[in-house]
Amino acid sequence: PKVIYLKDYQAPEYLIDETNLTFELYEDHSLVHAQLVMRRNPERAAGDAGAGLPPLVLDGQQLELLALSMDDQALTAADYQLDDSHLTLQPKAATFTLDSTVRIHPETNTALEGLYKSGKMFCTQCEAEGFRKITYYLDRPDVMSKFTTTVTAEQHRYPVLLSNGNPVASGSEEGGRHWATWQDPFKKPAYLFALVAGDLWCVEDSFTTMTARDVALRIYVEPENIDKVQHAMDSLKKSMRWDEEVYGREYDLDIFMIVAVNDFNMGAMENKGLNIFNSSCVLAKAETATDAAHQRVEAVVAHEYFHNWSGNRVTCRDWFQLSLKEGFTVFRDAEFSADMNSRTVKRIEDVAFLRTNQFAEDAGPMAHPVRPDSFMEISNFYTLTVYEKGSEVVRMIHTLLGAEGFRKGTDLYFERHDGQAVTCDDFIKAMEDANGVDLTQFKRWYSQAGTPRLAVTEAFDPAARTYTLSFRQSCPATPGQAEKLPFVIPVELGLLDAAGNDLPLRLAGEAQAGGGNRVISVTEAEQSFTFVDIAEKPLPSLLRGLSAPVKLSFPYDRDQLMFLMQHDSDGFNRWDAGQQLSVQVLQELIGQHQRGEPLQLDPRLLTAFRTLLDDESLDQAMVAEMLSLPSEAYLTEISEVADVDAIHAAREFTRQSIGATLFEPLLARYQANRAISRETGYVAEAAHIARRTLQNIALSYLMQSGKADVLAACLEQFKDCDNMTERLSALAVLVNSGFEQEKAEALACFADYFKDDPLVMDQWFSVQAGCGLPGGLERVQALMEHPAFTLKNPNKVRALIGAFANQNLVNFHRADGAGYRFLADHVITLNALNPQIASRQLAPLTRWRKYDDGRQQLMRAELERILASGELSSDVFEVVSKSLA
Ligand code: B3K
Ligand code: ZN
């Protein structure tokens, strides 16, 4: 595959003003007729007078061309060139109409890109470059066109026919077929095209916009799921209101539709007016979806809805700009979720995810800037860096400009670029122009890869009453980028006095002190800030809320961390202090394990946890977060060389000690919360979610004791609850316990009861795939044979193979390499079936540099084996070859 570079970008030679499509859907093939009203791009026409018109090069893959005409003149093979990815022809005039008919095979499309079948329904996924598998086209986001789409299909099998925009006509045909025509008044790139045909039911509602227009809202699902749609509908209405209130953005069509499909490569897709969702991100009801799943539905519905402005009305010029829409939209959905739920808890979850996963990507062979400079396969760049780090970059702009300044910037951005395909520079320019600031240096966040390090030291001068913080930033080398220039790092901070209060802050040279929390910008490689009027040595609280995506180090001792855990006015930093304390304690245990010494837990961690459990005034959601130990994956990420077995042993030992030492207060919390659950039944509100989270964490610690009455409580919860949150937690706790008989019974009973609900079965697979007890690989291999498992469904692959390789580190990294072999085998199979999924599942193998020599060799050998396994997709080839480089 060839490498595409950002620096080679050129505007398109031709534009497509109108796109008129007719689909004829059949069981063994489909036909696509496309009429494209085209013209020479005036931007590129300067030299035409002398040189004549350039050739028209259309994208097209896996298409069987049946007919082609230009301005109603039929073209023959002599008039064009065809290869496996392009159709090239020579226009005679600067404006013309091109008509084509192609045959395609959605019924055998297992890559789930382009037009395909998910179960009994037809659906599409076009982003990034799937439209070229539907018809010959200029498949690039800077070609925007008005689409009219007619779909014809058998009425009985496909009573519902949908596409983008508004329905304008429909009718019946001979032979039991029918048709519908949809028109989208907004110009859009082909990646936002969508089509759905199926036997679907819908829940309908409506939304009145800020200018009093009525919008029809419809969520389409297969009939058996009609009772799981209300939560998504509520989330949609909340999102629409929030975008009006917070960003002044109103919805623009008369109808907004969501369709749930079972076979989908990612979470969801923001097609104009017709979002298509992985059913896992739409369907939720108490009996079958956990609290976390409910929150994910809310977040994804919001994310896709928000794209209507950040992505659709204003789109990307080219795919290097992907973070323009994705980073921004992730930031928007994160703020929405923060407003709908607990802000601090949302931030904690996002930061834990970023630090564990995006930081690992930034440190690995696929590291790339938020705006990459090159790629082989764009599908590989829908990454944590583009999404989550991209969102952190937007968050920093928000922090630097303040909420009001940021809003001025987004208003200008949307106004200036409505209907355009633009770049990250345009976004920054709008922020600069609206606020009169210069973000030139800040833009390095878009071009430099890697996670910056920020080392901080302090100096207190009692005589001068000054306190100086010195910052030193650096950024490790990443592929293709040996040296980095300093970033702009916004550091939100406070200084705590001995009583734990924030001191008023005045920097040397300032006239008067401000509040106790402020943001300073570190812009140099080394830079100091001196605070004046400081009577006693304070304790700094740094990088509050993770105000920049960096790795901070400050030489806190454990007592100081315990103090911050209790007193920091910033809830996020209270949690973070607890995490740092846990990390220090766990790293000490890891060292003991490696030296073959008996493990000795620092009792201060237990004291800190006891204090949390004893304080009834604390938000239960916070208590739950703070009682959660850093994951094995995070401990791996922060290790120089990760010792999987030592990490697992240290963490399990700590969990056991917590369960034993804090048995009484944990039991009290568990019983109190379980009693409320029994009494109130499932309530979807934040306070109840918090309560259940704490209840379930307590249960998992208590179960470490192996006591019979805890087992009884666990079984009672498993059997006598009315919701998936309690049931699945109880099941997970059992699965990770040594109660073999109860475990087997619970698993069997669960599977029997939920066998017809694929999303619930996904959770059943995941819980087992993640179990760190010995024999994990054998258990997963056996589950691959289960009738509910199939490699053709991405959710199943993620639930079993993905959960095993990403969450069951101690089993996946078995010293004999069997876990690696297992993953590579399936990557090889998936490469032929679904390249995008194959390439994603591969990620754990690319992290080989983190492990000891023996494991490194085994992991590399599997990567080599994949490389030699035959014809590789561009997706898999790019990841494997870059990770071996
Ligand atoms: N924009 C889509 C992702 C498309 C991925 C294509 N491989 C979903 C989202 O980010 O909203
Ligand atoms: Zn998105």
Summarize the structure.
With about 900 residues, this protein is α+β, with helices and mostly antiparallel strands. It contains 28 helices and 31 strands. Bound molecules: (3S)-3,7-diaminoheptanoic acid and zinc ion.
Kindly describe this structure.
There is one protein chain. By secondary structure, the protein is of the alpha+beta class. Among the domains are: 16-38 and 55-276, tricorn interacting facor f3 domain (Immunoglobulin-like, Sandwich), CATH 2.60.40.1730; 315-447, Neutral Protease Domain 2 (Neutral Protease, domain 2); 755-885, Peptidase M1, alanyl aminopeptidase, C-terminal domain (Zincin-like fold). It is 42% helix and 21% strand. It is built from 28 helices and 31 strands. Strands 6-5-9-3-2-12-15-14 form an eight-stranded mixed β-sheet, with no helix packed on it. A five-stranded mixed β-sheet has the order 17-18-19-21-20, covered by helices on one side. Strands 10-11-16-13 form a four-stranded antiparallel β-sheet, with no helix packed on it. α6 packs across α7. The protein is globular and about 85 Å long. Residues 303, 307, 326, 329 line the site of zinc ion.
Largest beta sheet, briefly? 8 strands, mixed
Give the helix level as a range of percent: 40-55%
Bound molecules: (3S)-3,7-diaminoheptanoic acid, zinc ion
CATH topology of one domain: Immunoglobulin-like
Which structural class is indicated by helix and strand composition? alpha+beta
CATH class of one domain: Mainly Beta
Would you identify the regions where 5 or more consecutive residues have pLDDT less than 50? none
Annotation field: number of helices? 28
Mean pLDDT: 98
The main sheet orders its strands as: 6-5-9-3-2-12-15-14
Tally of DSSP β-strands: 31
How far apart are the termini?
16 Å
Name the CATH architecture of one domain.
Sandwich
Radius of gyration: 28 Å
Family: Belongs to the peptidase M1 family.
Function: Aminopeptidase N is involved in the degradation of intracellular peptides generated by protein breakdown during normal growth as well as in response to nutrient starvation.
Pfam families: DUF3458, DUF3458_C, Peptidase_M1, Peptidase_M1_N
Enzyme class: hydrolase
